[in-house]
Amino acid sequence: MVNKRKAFIRNNAKTIAFLLVYIVFIYLKVTNLDNYYFYDGKVTGLYKVVKSHSTGARGSVLIGREIPEIEYYKNNDTIKCDQGDLRLVSNFEVNEKIKVLEDKDNNYETKIYSLFYYWIDFNELILFLFAFLFILGFIKNFI
């Protein structure tokens, strides 16, 4: 019985490692929502930022992205800000209705409650990958 269980775990190591890391990741993100106030808002504009990066002898590469300017409503006040953080995808339209998260400890820290602005962050993706690889290596070598 134990050998069958070990064989199952070894044969499905990638799936098991992914599910373990995914469950912990989702749990941490959901419990982190308690640290924010939710407000209704909208995207008031999009402005494009273009940066040039030198590639050596080949010249330079232009990298551009759109940063959403948002406004949200708190205690009968309208608060405007932008979301200038580097994100994978910025897929908003002007006047699109959104949910805005405001940190309970720091009123100046806001996030758009969406897939690429709250749920998927560069740093968290890197940690997710390292945790996945660590668990996968542990399963392959010690089980």
How do the strands and helices of this protein lay out in sequence?
Layout: H1 2-11, H2 13-32, E1 36-54, E2 60-74, E3 77-82, E4 97-103, E5 110-112, H3 115-119, H4 122-142
Antiparallel strand pairs: 1-2, 1-4, 2-3, 4-5
Q: What would your notes on this structure say?
A:
- The chain has 143 residues and is of the alpha+beta class.
- It has helices at 2-11, 13-32, 115-119, 122-142; strands at residues 36-54, 60-74, 77-82, 97-103, 110-112.
- A five-stranded antiparallel β-sheet has the order 3-2-1-4-5, with no helix packed on it.
- Strand 2 (60-74) and strand 3 (77-82) form a beta hairpin.
- The protein is flat, with a radius of gyration of 21 Å.
Average pLDDT across residues?
A: 88
List the quaternary state of the chains.
Answer: single chain
Number of E strands: 5
Radius of gyration: 21 Å
Continuous helix count: 4
Characterize the main sheet. 5 strands, antiparallel
User: Strand fraction band?
Assistant: 25-35%
Helix content: 25-40%
Low-confidence stretches: none
Q: What string, H for helix and E for strand, traces the elements in order? A: HHEEEEEHH
Shape call = flat
Strand order of the largest sheet: 3-2-1-4-5
What is the structural class? Answer: alpha+beta
Report how far the terminal alpha carbons are from each other: 14 Å
